[in-house]
């Protein structure tokens, strides 16, 4: 059928074949056929529309069939050949329209990846303007169907939304998208709604930084001020650390939030953030919060909100907080600002003179400002006149509104307190979404997150210019502050080295661990690099003992992790010791230049790091099958290893010598090309409880060492072991 279709000359011939064909096609035939449609230069869109409408060849799992008998791999390969965003939109339309609900997410996710890849490609080629001139309905379908499911880890799709809006100059697209996003968050069946709300509010702040006012206006109105305030308050530490940690970013966000219009919804966000900054400033004597509030006052409140006072009297609440808070810096409220304030208050009084309820608010505000700025207002008669008018029209003439004055002299701490980075709930853990065979990556990320010193360093230290580091920090923030569900490592994945960034194939978890940490260190400043190295890296050197001359020592080198082999022992202590045993080799001595087969070679261990991970090398090449086969030999887990016993050196410090197992990664499967990785780690609050991180799934077990060993089936083998020094120090062995 595929050849017959490809050889058809006219559009009508091809359409007739589509209408006449009902049988399901073989995978290769199906792939060739749809790829040929994608390659059609003249009528490709029209032919694809008819083919998908008919589900030509049985490509999609249609609603009428109760079987999941369709090939997701074929769908992936077919859609990866797309080079046209309009066609991506067609696939999204028919997946929603004709497929069973349970198949929507994986298929739409794949289309999301394709759309992002194409947008990035068109940008690199400089053809993005031309390629985004799409049919309006197709654009709306594309973003409203793909983005609600995948917006949080498809940043390029968000750019498509903004670009589409800019091109078409109406809000239909954004309203429909906003409805889809909010419905996704509100859906009672959505077990990940906590994450989705968190990401939606993060999107609002991101767009505010980019000054995308119209998008914010629509989202504000549809979400509502109560929900906005609740989400920000619930995740206050997350937003404070990520968005309001410096004056420049905070001012950008405040300006972006009010760029398009001033509503009760965006004012409620400004008020909520102000309250959070003020609370942090008071509780922890935080000087940086004062500097942020001061900059917001000078750059946003006085020049942008004060002149709009007559448009929305809710501005009075914010003005009061900032003007009283900053009243020790009276010179900042210039005569020009006082004149503007009086003019706008007069407008409000004239416009609302029959609304007696508003005068309680106006009088309370003016009375509080008069008390703090009495000397400053002496030369402004208009303020006194307006104050008398407001008092006469007020129901409550004894209305006393006050607010604390911010005293920067009492603030001692320049940075956020470390407690701000603490997990809000030690018993709730968050999973990671599997992005197609990414369990190897997810298991390492969870093990690293459960590494206390590493997690704390990443959370506390912001290095925005280091892209991979910054993506990891954002992910750790979600793992730390999200209360339930799962989040996606997509943004981090796309920044990794090849093949991890561009392949959906299973990878070796031990190899990935080394590559990931090495790359993470490569692009961060030397000072931070050294701190991280002191967590994971030990030191050793090679030793060559020649029978004809002397012992020679190699250079001291850093090492990351220890590889353990199953060729002799199955007890961990013996396997570690074996790494450092002497072996006889045939070698030409560099000193005496004599060749001998009696030369002894070994590795001398100098220091073991505070955090030691060890890989049990279970895969070996089998010449007969020409594959990497797996050694299933049982290696019992040991919760505690005393290195004095391993190296037979009883003089070593007792505390520094004890290493505790806090996490391990298991591989379930028979070879290195398949199978599944998951991570087990000790609970932070209950060391006797083990958390199993199995991609998005989280399970808890209270198991002893013996129980854990017996729970794991033969093919579920511990592969990567994470130990930490009981004292938190290096263990010096040979100095």
Automatic annotation (TrEMBL):
GO terms for molecular function: cysteine-type deubiquitinase activity. Residues 430-726 form the USP domain. PROSITE patterns: USP_2, USP_3. One of its GO terms (biological process) is protein deubiquitination. It holds the Pfam family UCH. SUPFAM superfamilies: Cysteine proteinases (SSF54001). Coiled coil: none annotated. PANTHER family: UBIQUITIN CARBOXYL-TERMINAL HYDROLASE, UBIQUITIN CARBOXYL-TERMINAL HYDROLASE 7. This is USP domain-containing protein.
């Amino acid at each position: 059928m595929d050849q017959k279709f490809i050889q058809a000359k006219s559009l009508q011939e091809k359409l007739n074949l589509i209408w006449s064909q009902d049988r399901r096609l073989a995978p290769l035939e199906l792939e060739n056929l749809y790829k040929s449609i994608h390659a059609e230069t003249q009528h490709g869109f029209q032919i694809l529309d008819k083919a998908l409408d008919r589900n030509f060849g049985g490509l999609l799992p249609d609603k009428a069939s109760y079987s999941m008998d369709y090939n997701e791999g074929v769908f992936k390969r077919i859609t990866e050949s797309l080079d046209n965003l309009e066609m991506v939109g067609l696939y999204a339309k028919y997946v929603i329209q004709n497929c069973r609900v349970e198949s929507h997410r994986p298929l739409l996710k794949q289309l999301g990846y394709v759309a992002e890849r194409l947008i990035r490609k068109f940008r690199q080629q400089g053809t993005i303007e031309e390629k985004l001139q799409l049919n309006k309905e197709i654009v709306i379908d594309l973003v409203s169907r793909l983005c609600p499911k995948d917006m949080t880890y498809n940043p390029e799709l968000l750019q498509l939304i903004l670009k589409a809006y800019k091109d078409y100059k109406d809000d239909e697209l954004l309203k429909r998208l906003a409805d889809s996003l909010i419905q996704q968050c509100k859906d009672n069946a959505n077990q990940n709604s906590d994450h989705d709300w968190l990401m939606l509010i993060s999107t609002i702040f991101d767009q505010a930084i980019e000054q995308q006012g119209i998008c914010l206006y629509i989202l504000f109105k549809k979400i509502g001020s109560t929900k906005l305030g609740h989400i920000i308050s619930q995740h206050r530490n997350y937003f404070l650390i990520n968005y309001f940690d410096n004056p420049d970013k905070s001012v950008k966000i405040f300006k972006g939030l009010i760029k398009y219009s001033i509503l009760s919804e965006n004012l409620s966000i400004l008020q909520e953030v102000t309250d959070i900054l003020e609370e942090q400033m008071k509780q922890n004597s935080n000087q940086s919060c004062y500097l942020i509030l001061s900059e917001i006052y000078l750059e946003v409140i006085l020049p942008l909100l004060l002149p709009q006072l007559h448009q929305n009297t809710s501005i009075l609440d914010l003005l009061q907080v900032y003007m009283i808070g900053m009243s020790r810096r009276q010179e900042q409220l210039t005569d020009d600002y006082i004149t503007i304030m009086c003019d706008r208050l007069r407008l409000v009084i004239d416009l609302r003179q029959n609304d007696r309820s508003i005068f309680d608010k106006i009088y309370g505000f003016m009375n509080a400002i008069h008390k703090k700025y009495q000397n400053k207002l002496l030369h402004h008669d208009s303020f006194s006149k307006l104050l008398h008018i407001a008092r006469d029209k007020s129901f409550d003439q004894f209305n006393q509104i006050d607010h604390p004055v911010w005293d920067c002299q009492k603030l001692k701490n320049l940075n956020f307190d470390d407690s701000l980075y603490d997990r809000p709930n030690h018993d709730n853990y968050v999973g990671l979404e599997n992005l197609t065979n990414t369990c190897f990556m997810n298991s390492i990320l969870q093990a690293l997150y459960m590494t206390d010193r590493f997690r704390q360093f990443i959370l506390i230290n912001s290095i925005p210019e280091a892209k991979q580091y910054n993506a990891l920090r954002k992910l750790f923030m979600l793992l730390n502050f999200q209360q339930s569900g799962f989040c996606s490592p997509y943004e981090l994945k796309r920044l990794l080295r090849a093949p991890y960034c561009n392949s959906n194939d299973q990878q070796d978890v031990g190899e990935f661990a080394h590559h990931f940490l090495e790359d993470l260190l490569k692009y961060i400043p030397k000072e931070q690099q050294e701190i991280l190295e002191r967590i994971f890296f030990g030191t050793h050197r090679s030793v060559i003992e020649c029978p004809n001359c002397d012992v020679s020592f190699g250079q001291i080198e850093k090492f990351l992790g220890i590889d353990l082999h199953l060729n002799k022992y199955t007890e961990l202590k013996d396997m570690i010791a074996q790494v450092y045993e002497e072996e006889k080799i045939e070698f030409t001595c560099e000193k005496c230049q004599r060749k001998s087969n009696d030369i002894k070679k070994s590795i001398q261990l100098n220091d073991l790091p505070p955090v030691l991970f060890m890989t049990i090398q279970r895969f070996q090449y089998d010449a007969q099958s020409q594959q990497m086969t797996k050694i299933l030999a049982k290696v019992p887990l040991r919760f505690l290893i005393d290195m004095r016993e391993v190296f037979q050196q009883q003089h070593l410090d007792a505390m520094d010598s004890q290493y505790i197992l806090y996490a391990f990664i298991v591989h379930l499967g028979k070879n290195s090309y398949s199978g599944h990785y998951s991570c087990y780690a000790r609970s932070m609050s209950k060391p006797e409880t083990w958390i199993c991180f199995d991609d998005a799934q989280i399970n808890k077990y209270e198991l002893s060492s013996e129980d854990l060993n017996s729970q794991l089936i033969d093919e579920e083998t511990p592969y990567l072991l994470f130990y930490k020094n009981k004292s938190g120090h290096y263990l010096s062995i040979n100095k």
